[in-house]
Design goal:
152 residues, 3 helices, globular
């Protein structure tokens, strides 16, 4: 199994340790067509073409890029190429039930989603963000650190 995290910039560097704890022993790489580095924080950096050509039978991805239009483009490209989205959830995050959370969400440390929230595709919940009951959040939305999203 190969897991690629698209984007080796600031948010990607925050998310990779969460993914490393979530998927111990799995091969984790950054996917980045703009960063020529061989490694970032000890993780291999691959261009997308390398990731696609990798012989792993199962490939998963998530996109740790803040710009929603670019996140949408990259996620759609990966899905079109048959790569499956993977939710990333820090052990310190809390998601009560019932909720409807679409594919590709990232929940950083100390995030909370209470009951009956609806969250769209490739949502980013930065550290200490909060989604209250009955909130509806669209696709490719990013909550910055310490933001409370409440229904109203």
């Amino acid at each position: 199994m190969l897991i690629g995290l698209y984007g080796s910039g600031g948010f990607g560097r925050e998310v990779m340790p969460i993914l490393d704890r979530q998927a111990p022993g799995r091969e984790l790489v950054f996917i980045d067509d703009l960063n020529p580095a061989a490694t970032v924080n000890g993780f291999r950096v691959m261009r997308y073409a390398e990731f696609l050509a990798h012989p792993a039978h199962e490939k998963f991805f998530n996109v740790a890029i803040a710009t929603s239009t670019e996140r949408r483009r990259l996620a759609e490209k990966c899905v079109a190429d048959g790569i499956r989205p993977l939710q990333v959830r820090a052990g310190e995050s809390i998601c009560y039930e019932p909720n409807s959370i679409a594919e590709g969400a990232i929940f950083c440390a100390h995030t909370t989603v209470t009951a009956n929230a609806t969250i769209g595709r490739y949502f980013h919940a930065n550290i200490y963000s909060y989604v209250a009951h009955d909130c509806v959040i669209g696709d490719f939305v990013t909550l910055p650190p310490r933001l409370d999203a409440t229904a109203g």
